[in-house]
Amino acid sequence: MSLAQLGGRELTRQAVHLIETGKMRPSPHSLEAIARRLGVPASELVRPPEQAATGAHLEELAARHRYDEVIELAEQILAGNPRREVRAHAHLILGQALCHQQRLDEAEHHLELARQQFTDLDDIRHAAEAIDWRAQARNAREDPNAVAMGELALRLYRAVGRGQPEVETRMLEHLGSYLVRRRAYAEAESWYQEALRAAEFLRDLSSVGRIYHGLSRCAWSRGETSRALRLMERAVALYAVENDLRPEPARTQLPRAENDLAVMLLRIGRLDQAEERVQSALGRLEAAGCERLRSHGLLTLAELRQRQGRLDEATALVEESIEIASRLGEKMALAGALQQLGHLRALRGDRSGCDVAFRRALDLLDGLGLSERRAECERLYRHLIEDRAAAGA
């Protein structure tokens, strides 16, 4: 920010310069004005030096995606019973790191503590960040309540006034991703477009990659195949560069995008390219020790094997996906796997097995309140029943 931007209407550029260089002590009013502009509580600007150094180191480690070290240092800070402001920030950054490592229950615990403590401190902006990250943890568990939680976080963050562009961009992108998962593509695209505008001056490749990734899914839903492929390939390229520079943030994003690209290639009949992408995605997930997204990759590979007429392999892959999704509580992935299993059983002439799988899938989607996805599942089931009746006639 320039001196004029930081000072706003309350302080002259000269006053800001004198404060910045230590030649003038700010009044409480000036301190509050500067804190508002920076998007932090005034207490953040007057922390004791030793606590400021510890907090700065924690934030530096998080910015460099060194999450194991973040977790270790944050736990040390919390064990030392620090001041409330320091404790709240330690819980927030620790929750974010745990979220990145897919340790979702622990992440939610620390993020809720952060929310409570920031609320008690009347620091609504950081409380909103804690809620946003809790929504992200819920979304990773395929919890449909993530949407309402993400919307609440954005409302609270904006209500305080102008905040940090990277934080608002992340909140907007998160909302888009939650809505894509619910097949609410039109609403998702509006959030993604807003996120893209907010990200104009950001240099975070991973963040921009996520926006293109989401926009690709929205374009695909409208049948804009060429545009969807271009956007997804752009997302994969951005994630790949991020993976070369900073592997940790792209650890799950790159294989997720590769799998989504594989699905698109599969649906337009480019089977060899689809296989290359999905195998790459599964290999990256295995190397990262990330089991949570594996169920989706297995379903893509199963659909590919089904297209190739290799039904035994397809069935085995779907059953493995069902086992993983059931164990990890991934209800959306489980519903998709059961739908795919029902289709495979129909192809084999197993009518009762088909019915059982589709009924379980429809029940799950009912429970999740995913009306669009349920309608898709029901359409496929009805089509298979009609085919069955025609064959019987």
Give the topology, please:
Elements lengths: L2 H5 L5 H8 L7 H11 L10 H15 L3 H13 L4 H17 L3 H17 L3 H17 L5 H14 L5 H17 L3 H14 L6 H17 L3 H21 L4 H18 L3 H18 L5 H14 L3 H18 L2 H17 L3 H18 L2 H22 L1
Helix pairs in contact: 4-5, 4-6, 5-6, 6-7, 6-8, 7-8, 8-9, 8-10, 9-10, 10-11, 10-12, 11-12, 12-13, 12-14, 13-14, 14-15, 14-16, 15-16, 16-17, 16-18, 17-18, 18-19, 18-20, 19-20
Would you mind describing this structure in some detail?
The protein is an all-alpha fold. Among the domains are: 39-163, Serine Threonine Protein Phosphatase 5, Tetratricopeptide repeat (Alpha Horseshoe), CATH 1.25.40; 310-393, Serine Threonine Protein Phosphatase 5, Tetratricopeptide repeat (Alpha Horseshoe). It has helices at 3-7, 13-20, 28-38, 49-63, 67-79, 84-100, 104-120, 124-140, 146-159, 165-181, 185-198, 205-221, 225-245, 250-267, 271-288, 294-307, 311-328, 331-347, 351-368, 371-392. Helix 16 packs parallel to helix 18. It is elongated and about 90 Å long. The N and C termini lie far apart (74 Å). The model has no long low-confidence stretch (mean pLDDT 88).
